[in-house]
TrEMBL record:
SUPFAM superfamilies: Porins. This is Phosphate-selective porin O and P. It holds the Pfam family Porin_O_P. Residues 31-44 have a biased composition (Low complexity). InterPro entries: Porin_dom_sf, Porin_O/P. Keywords: Signal. It comes from Segatella maculosa OT 289. The keyword Signal applies. Residues 25-51 are annotated as: Disordered. Residues 1-20 form the signal peptide.
Length: 398
């Protein structure tokens, strides 16, 4: 409507002199009318183009909004067993430009499961996942500040729920990276507040990938959106090496110190009065990924904090893209060597597939069977050696 109005006004302004002259003189030859019409049409076109260009410039300056919803059905025989429809994730993402070479990201999780963050009815609340700015000084030097996802392992940094081959991550990601080390069962989604320097080094001749990338992160080592409770900071160092385009090796090491703190929904690992309990964790892995074919990935991880935490994890995944289909198998192992009777001590086999209806819609079906250690079976699973899980989930992107 605005463009029509502007075109109409422009046409009036242009044609006004001609109309005034027509009142005092006879019309000229037919060619004169044609020329006037041509000039008017040309001006209308120019005005339309200018308005369209202005609108496009305005839209280009606005933050980009995106996100996804993952929802479906989950069935498990673990413990007493459950069958439930679930809304696993609803992510709202805003990406924008602060200034030249400086970008920002805001990501909100609408179905977070962080212990102690639910309301009085046990319903899940909103949680800020990411809130950071990134300054790109060069390919080799970037600076990120705010709350960001830690570069520990492939699954927490290089992969998102939107691109994961299975419905759920491995326990290397869930328990070693996405669990606050201060507390035994509080999820922090692998996020922390701090500053990170990172970049790509040694580009190959075609410059379509880099042989070497690095990350150096300094963070609180506490819960997301929360100040630190001691003077010590978490230090994370990471190296990624690509000998060829589709093959990556990654090694990550994290050191931190933690103070005793009672967190709603979690059990503190650090005894009362202790302010500097040291924690170490590392994850190493290899990943071959052909987007149109074979996908192989494996990782091993270890986390230890004195005599309070000592855990090991490993997984190996194989998938293959065949048109819109992506069949997948995964072996997943985890051992909690301090709490040997929990159901975190298992060997799990998973099989399933992803079907891509389009770039914005996919459906995933997974079947997993967990085999528990003797202590976990006897004390936490009612004597049953294993449990089954079926997941059928759809993901809608926008």
């Amino acid at each position: 409507m605005k463009r029509v109005f502007m075109s109409f006004v422009s046409a009036l302004l242009i044609s006004a002199p001609a109309l005034a002259a027509d009142e005092n003189a006879n019309m000229g030859p037919a060619e004169t009318n044609t020329a006037t019409e041509t000039a008017t049409t040309s001006t209308e076109k120019t005005t339309d183009e200018e308005n369209t260009s202005a609108l496009e410039k305005l839209i280009s300056k606005l933050p980009k909004l995106s996100g996804y919803l993952q929802t479906g059905w989950n069935y498990t025989t673990q413990g007493k067993g459950t069958s439930s429809f679930q809304a696993k994730r609803l992510r709202l993402i805003m990406d924008g430009q602060v200034m030249e070479n400086v970008t920002f990201r805001l990501q909100i999780e609408a179905f977070n499961g962080i212990g102690g963050s639910r309301n009085g009815n046990g319903q899940k609340n909103l949680q800020v996942m990411d809130a950071f700015a990134t300054a790109k000084l060069s390919d080799a030097l970037n600076i990120r500040a705010g709350q960001y996802y830690l570069p520990l392992g492939f699954e927490n940094y290089n992969i998102s729920p939107a691109t994961l081959e299975t419905v759920d991550f491995s326990n290397i990601c869930y328990r070693m990276v996405c669990r606050n080390p201060v507390s035994y069962n509080v999820v922090d989604y692998g996020r922390d507040l701090g500053v990170m320097v990172f970049g790509n080094l040694l580009p190959n001749a075609e410059k379509d990938f880099n042989y070497l990338s690095y990350y150096l992160s300094l963070t609180n080592g506490n819960m997301p959106m929360k100040d630190d409770n001691n003077k010590s900071k978490d230090i994370i160092t990471v190296l990624e090496f690509r000998p060829i385009k589709n093959l990556m090796f990654k090694g990550a090491y994290n050191w931190g110190e933690y103070a005793s703190e009672n967190i709603a929904g979690g059990n503190s690992l650090v005894p009362a009065g202790v302010k500097h309990q040291e924690m170490n964790r590392y994850i190493v892995g290899a990943w071959y990924n052909d987007p149109n074919g074979l996908n192989l990935r494996t990782e091993y991880g270890h986390i230890q904090a004195g005599s309070y935490v000592k855990e090991d994890g490993f997984y190996a995944l194989a998938a293959y893209t065949i048109g819109n289909w992506v069949p997948v198998v995964r072996y997943d192992m985890y051992r909690d060597k301090v709490n040997k009777a929990t159901l975190n001590n298992y060997d799990r086999i998973l099989g399933g597939f992803t079907y891509m209806f389009s770039k914005k819609l996919k459906i995933q079906a997974n079947y997993g069977y967990s085999m528990y250690t003797k202590e976990a079976k006897d004390f936490s699973n009612g004597g049953k050696k294993g449990s089954s899980q079926i997941q059928i989930m759809a993901m809608y992107k926008f």
